[in-house]
Structure prediction request, 633 residues.
Amino acid sequence: MDVGRRRPSGRGAARDDTGDDWGLVTALVRTLWPYARRHRRLLTLALAAMVGEVVTALLSPWPLKFVFDSVLFVKGGGQHLRPHLGSHGVVLLVVIAAAALAIALFDALFTYVDDRSTEVVAQRSIYELRKDLFSHLQRLSVAFHQHADTRVGDLLARLSGDIQTLQDLASDGVSNLITNGMTLVTMVAVMLVLNWKLAFVSVALTAPLVVVLRTATLRMRLALRQARKQEGRVSAVLQESLTAIKLVQAYGREDYEEARVDTESSRSLAASLEAAVLQARLTPAVTILSTVATMGVTAYGVVLVVDRSITPGELLVFLGYLRGMQSPVKQLAKLAYQVGRATAGMERLNETFAEVPTVVELAGALPLSPVRGHIAFEHVTFGYVDAQPVLRDLSLEAHRGQVVAIVGNTGAGKSTLLSLLPRFYDPWDGLVTIDGVDVRDVTLASLRAQISLVLQDSLIFRSTIRENIAYGRPDASDDEIEAAAEAAGVGAIAARLELGYDTVVSERGSSLSGGEKQCIGIARAILKDAPIVLLDEPTSSMDSFTERLVMEGLEHLMEGRTAFVIAHRLATVRHADLVAVIRDGGVVELGPPAELLAGDTIFAELARTQALLGEPPRERPRRVSQAGHRRRS
Ligand SMILES: Nc1ncnc2c1ncn2[C@@H]1O[C@H](COP(=O)(O)OP(=O)(O)OP(=O)(O)O)[C@@H](O)[C@H]1O
Ligand SMILES: [Mg+2]
Prediction:
């Protein structure tokens, strides 16, 4: 059985080749299409506007052609300059000017409709994509989130920067690609109809431009991909340093952290600069090459005009189209930059989307029926790293209503054992059952709904104390919340605060002490009122007075429920029905606390050490601080 182990992921397996353009474009479309297709009407509108833009682009040189061929020159045995303008000429001029204005107006209208609709589709699609990515991340197993390779900062970069690259591309890149592509093709077609020789020369002279652009964009894409990856690392380092700011300042490692950020940033800078330099070099190259092409076509065109193969007006159309062709080619260069960034971003997004939860719900899993409370770990083997089990063939049982205390050295695997019950992880081998039902056979939501959990490090959201307590039961009434709070000792904390339960406690709980956070965590569990209770050192950071108060609340919570309590301190363990001592991945001692205390056991030894240390040890620092206070005053 391999369900508990992390699937060898695609991480780091991203392709480093440049890939073929077509493959990349189709991959991009495949990523974006499921979102864009929800806006079919807007997309159709945008596409219609794009066709309109192409038509206006094709028409735009024609008014000038008619000015030349029909107003300035008149036919009659070749072309001659019109001897005098006359009313006919004036009317023609006015009509042509009106036509030019109409073309410009339509162009403006189409561009507006196109920009607006594509922007709306792009923004909405990206909004949905980000929502989906976050939802996907939330559902990935704890094994993914706690894996050594997973860095929160990097995930944030994926949710922000990488998604932004796709938005940039979708906003104007896609529309550019379509309009410019169509313009290019249709212009070449019209040129072929007008004069195939000149058309051929125009295309031939534009070709070097395309070759130069293509070479540059391939190199640019490599650099951009490197830059995106590196930006993920920068974000990760920033996040880690800022989260540990107290540690950084306490040990005076600000310079070191700055250097660390600097190393990663400068790598990202180098890659981005490389792409920028390539992009910058491209512009003058394109200008020179397009001038050469224009001059070449002009020269050959003049020969054709003198030969009377084409009219001067037609030459103007050719030159107009040549400019028209070069502008899409230049646009496509800019697009290549966007595509480069977006492909790198997309690869990173797809890498995350490809992660699958390791803890999965069986197809057809049924909700767990109301729990009576018999819990068993049967021959459980589990670890975080292959071939290094933390728990080995461990068996432990709690009957309905029993409180089982779990005792063991730091790192013995106590928290690990409890994390198997709500299926944060699945065991490699063996079973975890509730009332005889394998936890893997029931739905995750129903399983977790039956468990009240107090984590070893209490987590607090930035919101009011009230909302923090009601996190697991947002519909709880104020009375229920306050009753749970009182039982967990939060009442006394809230009483000290001006706004009481409506005080906003900050992110990561930094405005609360460790013990206060624990009290809130316990109140949250009490309010959830689930039949199974898991407490991971619930009172470890409290003074013994608060602890005694909270223990009463906890005993009340555990009454009639099956509970597992991890504790180092005997005060917490004394009232348990059973004590299980964990060592070397297994249960080495099991029995009622009094019985174990009476024998020659590890537990008794532990109890003696604590007695020698003089339980409770937490009051000493308090006296010191009072003394300090007195000295100051
Ligand atoms: N996410 C993880 N990835 C890899 N190893 C882990 C992970 N979590 C815990 N471990 C390892 O598993 C072992 C057991 O950890 P666990 O947290 O269960 O110990 P514990 O008994 O709860 O200790 P403590 O009393 O300090 O809380 C430790 O050696 C620890 O390094
Ligand atoms: Mg632990």
Notes: The two ends are 66 Å apart (CA to CA).
